[in-house]
Amino acid sequence: MNAAIRNLLVEMNNMASSSKQMEGFLPSIACKIGKAGSADTCQVVLLGRGKPSLELRSACASGDLKWSPRLQMEYALRDLPVCREALAAHAPIRLHGEELARKANGPEGELLTGSCPWVAAILILPMVAQGQTLGLIILGRTKRFFRRSFTASQVNMSQALAGHAATAIDQAALKRESVHDPLTNLYNRRHFSTRLREEIARAKRQLQVIVILLCDMDRFKDINDSRGHQVGDSILKAIADSFQASTRGTDLVFRWGGDEIVVILSDSTREGGLQAANRIREGVRRTGDTYGYDLDVSIGIAIYPEHGHSEHELIHTADRALYIAKMSGRHLHIGEEEYELNRGAIKVVFQAPEALHHLDENLRIAGRWRAKGNRFAIDDFGPAPHSLAELLDDSPPRVEA
C-alpha cells in the first residue's frame, strides 16, 4: 500500500470520527474513492433499514460530467439482480461493453450508471464490516478512457478502500444508534440530558431563550388497545415524521417514552414556542386524518431561564404544564401556575367536588390573592379543600406564596 493510499485511509477515518451525521462524510468518501479508482463517477448505496432495498445516499462525478443520480432514491432489490449477486458473494463485479449494455437496464441500469449515457464500464464493490454487508460502492468510467475496463490492481485497491469505508460507516451507524430511538428515528431520552445541558450552556453565554415542549398524544392508547401495537407503531412513526416536519432544522426532537415526545427549541421566544406547538398539533391532527383516527396532542411548555436553569427544573415545570393542558382540555399551557382565573381553572386545581361550590365567589377571592403577588400551585392545597376562603386562613406549607 503506497503512501497516498495510506493518507487517504487516514483522511476517511478522520472524517468519519469527526462527523456527527453519516451524511457529513459520505460525499467526501465518494469523491476520494472515485478519484483513487480513476473513475468518472462514484456512488455510495446503502441497504435499506428493515426492507429489501438499496438507497442511493451519496454520489460524486469528475469534472463537468452531465449525469443525474437520484439521491435518496430507494431501489427494490428484486429489480437489481447484478447488485444482489455482488451483495451475496461479497465480491466485486466488473461490467463493460456488451455485457454492461445487456445487464444494466431498467431500474438497475439507472442506478449503476446514474442515468449517464456515457458510462462504458462499471465496478461494483460490496462494503462489508464485521461480516455484515452494509451496501455497495459503484464506480463508473466513461468512454473517454482508452482502457475502459478496470484493471485487477484497480479493483484490489478500490475493494480495500470500500472495506475501510464500510468500517467508517459501521462506526457512524453505531454512534447514531446510541443516541436515536430505533422505532421513530428521533433522538432518545438518554441523549436528551446531554443536549439540553449543551443548549443551556450556550443560551447562558449568548443570553438566549430556550423553550421546552413536553408532548403527550391524546387517546393514543385506544389505538394500541383496539388495533394492536403494530398499527400503533406505524402511526407513531408517522407522528414522529410530522414532528420533524413541523419544527425547524435547528430544533431537537426526542422520544421521551411511550407516546411522549419532547422538543427543544433553541434561541426561541414564548411566542415562537406557542407557534411551534400549534404547528405540531396541526401536524398530528393531519396524521390522524390520514389514518382515520381522531388524534391530538397536549403540550406543556417550559421556558429557560424564566422557569428554571436546570434540566430538573425545566422538565418539572413542563410536566406540570402538560398536566394542566390535559385536564383543562386546552391542549397547550405555559408554566405550572399560569392558568386563567375562570371556572376551568378551578376544576383543574381543585379536584374535590366540594371545591366546586360557589365558584364565582372563589374566583373573586383567587383574584384578590393573586393581586397581592401570591400564586397557586396545583397540588399544594391538600386532598379535599372546601373553598378558597378556607385556604386564605391556612398558612404555608399548604398554600404556596
The CATH top-level class label of the largest domain: Alpha Beta
Q: Sheet bearing the most strands, described?
A: 6 strands, antiparallel
> CATH fold name of the largest domain, please?
Beta-Lactamase
Shape, principal axes of CA atoms: elongated
Broad structural category:
alpha+beta
Uncertain segments are 347-351, 376-389, 391-401
Strand content is: 15-25%
The side-by-side strand order for the widest beta sheet comes to 3-2-1-6-5-4
How many structural domains are formed by the residues? 3
Measured as a percent range, the helix fraction is 40-55%
Name given to the CATH architecture of the largest domain: 2-Layer Sandwich
Distance between the termini: 74 Å
What's the quaternary structure here?
Answer: single chain
Summarize model confidence as the mean pLDDT: 82
> How many individual β-strands?
11
Number of helices: 14
Describe the protein in words.
- Mean pLDDT is 82; it is low at 347-351, 376-389 and 391-401.
- The strands form 2 sheets. A 6-stranded antiparallel beta sheet has the order 3-2-1-6-5-4.
- The chain has 401 residues and is an alpha+beta fold.
- The chain folds into 3 domains: 3-176, 2-Layer Sandwich (Beta-Lactamase), CATH 3.30.450.40; 189-335, Reverse transcriptase/Diguanylate cyclase domain (Alpha-Beta Plaits); 339-401, no CATH class.
- The protein has helices spanning 3-18, 26-36, 81-89, 97-103, 106-113, 152-179, 189-206, 220-227, 229-246, 270-291, 311-328, 343-349, 359-371, 388-392; strands at residues 41-47, 53-61, 74-76, 93-96, 119-129, 132-142, 210-218, 252-257, 260-265, 296-304, 332-334.
- Helices cover 47% and strands 19% of the residues.
- It is built from 14 helices and 11 strands.
- β10 (296-304), α11 and β11 form a beta-alpha-beta unit.
- α1 (3-18) packs antiparallel against α2 and α2 (26-36) runs antiparallel to α6.
